[in-house]
Structure formats: structure tokens, C-alpha cells
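Example record

The entry below shows one chain as it appears in the dataset: sequence first, then C-alpha cells.
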Amino acid sequence: MERFEFGNRHLRAEALPELGGRLSRLQYLAGETTHDVLVPIGADPALPPSWPKGGAYPLIPYSNRIADAQVLHAGKTHALAPHPDARPHTLHGHTQLRPWRVADSSAASLTLAIDHGGDAHWPWAFSATQRFWVEDATLHVALELRNNATDDAPAGIGWHPYFAISGDPAIVLNAANEWLQNDANLPTGETIAAPQGGLTLDRAGGTRYFGGWDGTARLETGLGLGLTLRADRIFGQMVVHRPRNIDYLCLEPVSHVANGFNLAAKGWRETGTIILKPGESVAGRIALAAERK
């Protein structure tokens, strides 16, 4: 499996296009000290659908779960293939299970692309790109999805990084609301006011969904590194996930809440759901800046 490297004197990145278009490593270089920003993916990673819990991957054409692997759209229920790790639901879109191709590369950048013709995982045809580049100590990520189907199609984009942490790191983010969820980690449609400022997910773990996110999140990793994540307005939702007793944290900028297509079809508002006409695209950029602490 071929690895592609890019970077500068501040950041060194590595990607595995064939493994779901993932970044497999991101390191911050401070003199003779190297910090892992993302949990690195090793030399012999697990293959999809049992993906490695490391690096970062795209959430295309949707984020998180779709309840019972059935999506409601235009008055019709479309059956999807469930994810083996989330049955009976789907999980995170199928492009993180498929090989991507290298469309362009340079010493400081990499562009990956994928084409989907429609199948049991997603009936609507689309094409998508991920472009990565580094400037100083900031990694930039640009995502785009284009509807190639002949009909209107639901669509979503997002990014799923696994940040390396130690202890109970401090998170700072501001959002308008937090989505309530059931035992299957599916939002019910109801919300409460989101806590403002500091947020901690301890080793007990958990997943939280925030709506009306203002596009900025800060993380003190506990490993001598501070991270600032900024995202375009299209990423109006933020997922915060930490597993039980494992040292990684996911801060996922996404365009819609989990199961958002179905919630919107049932009348819930502010889900972030996007419907693309044939030939239309949705795109957004994310910037991740690192500094020593």
C-alpha cells in the first residue's frame, strides 16, 4: 500500500489513498522534538471495514449514523447497506472504505479524488475531492462533493481526525445547542443549550453532537501541544467523541448532524441537511494549526 508524504519544516504529513483516502500521520516538528498531532497508523493497518482508529478520514457523502440504514428523501425510503460495526445502522459514509486516487501532489500538498456511480451503499452518483496543503504550522483541508446523479440528492461532508491526547485534555468550543440522543447514539431531534467555553470528556468516554457551532475549536492535548481547528460555515455541526479509556479524541467538523436527513424529513429543523440538484456541489475548508505548549 503506497504512502504519500508532504509537508514543510513545521509539519510532516503522510496519506494512504487506497485506505479510504486517509491521512495516516501528521506530526508537528519543533527543533529536534517531534509531536504526533494525529494518532499514527502503523505499517500494517487493519483493512476496511475494520478501519484503524488513527489518522483522519473524509466523511462523504454523509457523517455518522443513518438510522436502520434507511434514508428518507423526496418522500421515498432508500435502503442502504449497514456498516458491520454499527448494525443495523450505517456509519460515516462509504468513501472511507474505498480507495481514492492521487489527482495531484507536490512537496507541500496532496489532492485525492474518488468517483461513485451509485450502489447499495449510496444510490446517488457523485464525485469528491480532498485537497491537503501545509502553510507554516497549519494543515489546510478542502473538501468538495458534486452530485452526478440525474435527480436531487442528499449530501454531506465532514472530516474525522483522531487526535493524540493524554489525560483529560481541555476543549474550548462554542455552539448554540447540543443534540439529545438515544442509547444508539442517534439524535432524537430535541436540543438543549450547549455549554459555553470549556468542555471535558474524561476517560469514561462518550459522543456529543453540537449544532450551531461557530467554526472554532481549541484543544490542549496534554502532550505539550495546542491545536486550533477552524472551519467554514458549511461545517455548522461538531461531533466530539472519546472512547472509554483510550487516548484519542475526535473533533469532527461536519455539515449535518447524525441521521440528519431523516430528522429533516420528519420536520426537525437546523439539522444542516443539504440537498444538491444535479451538477451542484457542496464544498468547505478546514484549517488545523499546531503550537507548542
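Notes for this example: Residues 27 and 33 are 10 Å apart (CA to CA). The chain has a mean pLDDT of 94.
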